[in-house]
Amino acid sequence: MKVLGEFRTRMQEQRKLVAQSSKADKEHQQAMEGLKAALESARTAYEQMEADLKESDSNLLNMTKQLDNANAAQKVAAEALEAANIEKSRLLEEAKSREEEVSSLRKELADAEKAKQEAEDGKKDVEAKLANAEADFVANFHNTEAYSNFADYFARVGQQEVLTALRNDHPEFNVKDLEARFPPPDADGEEDS
């Protein structure tokens, strides 16, 4: 009986141990399941981080390309701006040169206009003097020595011959004006005054 009691006691202890072991196994299993879930979550998070990192790398690469493109565009724009500034400077120099040329041409034109006006004034002055001289010569021709010599010669030598020839050769010519202007010489051989 004592042996049977001991056996029962041992069996109960074994059952307790089995129950405890089963409970421990269950807890261990639950812990393992939790660890698996945590590991899966960690793996998922890692994969997401890896995907995010790849996307970040891709974005960074794209941004680098965009930056390179922007730098290239900026370089092209800077070169274009420099070329535009050079062309602007050249055009300004050309405009300045043209302006100086136009100014010089205007000055030459003004000088030419002034010279032309002076020449016209001089011509008018000469023409006026010539007209005055001609008028004076015509007005005073009968007082000149040439006229006196011609009149004297004509009165002494050729008056009658000329008048006769004019009457014969040109009957339409009125010689009375000449006779009145050059009357026959008097007894002393001088014109009547």
Straight-line N-to-C gap: 214 Å
Number of strands: 0
Q: What is the helix tally?
A: 3
Give, in order, the helices and strands.
HHH
Low-confidence stretches: 187-193
Coiled coil: 32-136
Keywords: Coiled coil
Protein name: Tropomyosin
Layout of secondary structure:
Blueprint: H1 2-140, H2 145-169, H3 176-181
Coiled coil: 32-136
Protein name: Tropomyosin
Keywords: Coiled coil
Brief overview:
This protein is an all-alpha fold and 193 residues long. It has 3 helices and no strands.
Could you walk me through the main structural features you see in this protein, from its secondary elements to its overall organization?
This protein has 193 residues and is mostly helical. It is 88% helix and 0% strand. The protein has three helices and no strands. The chain has helices spanning 2-140, 145-169, 176-181. The longest helix is centred in the middle third of the chain and has 139 residues, at 2-140. It is rod-shaped. Residues 187-193 have low confidence and may be disordered. Keywords: Coiled coil. This is Tropomyosin. It comes from Abeliophyllum distichum. Residues 32-136 form a coiled coil.
